[in-house]
Amino acid sequence: MKAKTAEDRQLLELIEPIAESLGLDIVRVRLMGGTQRRRLQIMAERGSDHDISVEECARLSRAVSEVFDAADPIAGEYLLEVSSPGIDRPLTRQSDFDLFEGYEARLETDRMIEGRKRFKGVIAGVDGDNIAIDLEGEEDTALIPFEWLVDAKLVLTDDLMKAGAEKRAARNDNSTETED
Fold first, then answer.
1. Phi and psi of 70, rounded to 5°?
2. Could you tell me which residue ranges the Ribosome maturation factor RimP C-terminal domain spans (predicted)?
3. Which tens digit of pLDDT belongs to each residue from 8-64?
4. Please, are residues 28 and 53 in contact by the beta-carbon 8 Å criterion?
5. How far apart are CA 53 and CA 83, in angstroms?
6. What is the CATH architecture assignment of 6-83?
7. Of these four, 77, 82, 145, 177, which has the most CB atoms within 10 Å of its CB?
8. Helix (H) or strand (E) holding 170
């Protein structure tokens, strides 16, 4: 799910080694827009703490631009956008579902499961190759095969915003300590 289309997957193959060389993990790559001005969106983070600084985004952007200038993998003009996944981030790796266990998410599958493709509930972790989710209004925990997911995203809730604020506060405390 890091890449949606065949073109996205080809770009991911070029981008991932660049990010890894900078100590970053790619969360998602999407090439959006028609034949005119397209936008290449790259979401990245440090694997160690799932964060990324503006400077790291700029470094990744410059490194990708350098490689893409030589390889020219996108026909025509495009805008390169490198960012963090944000607080209501996409969940693109199976490990994301362990990391964000206990938070609310929206999932969409590529096939019908009990008459539907969209699910909303609280992430209950990973069970083998399945994502466990406690769906709204249902007693049993649902297991959805990870490979069936086409989209998954955290839902912006008070709990998620509180966790994000705590993470920012901890980051600010650490940066203040290193400046002294």
1. -80, -45
2. 91-157
3. 999 999 999 999 999 999 999 999 987 678 999 999 999 888 889 999 999 999 999
4. no
5. 9
6. 2-Layer Sandwich (3.30)
7. 82
8. helix 158-179
Place of tokens 């466990």: 132
Burial of residue 63 (CB within 10 Å: 0-12, 13-18, 19+) is middle
Amino acid at 161: M
Parallel/antiparallel/unpaired status of strands 116-127 and 130-135: antiparallel
User: φ and ψ at 27, to 5 degrees?
Assistant: -90, -45
Q: Can you read off the two tokens belonging to residue 14?
A: 């070029």
- Structural tokens at position 42: 């790259």
Count of residues making up the chain: 180
Per CATH, the homologous superfamily of domain 94-158 is Ribosome maturation factor RimP, C-terminal domain (2.30.30.180)
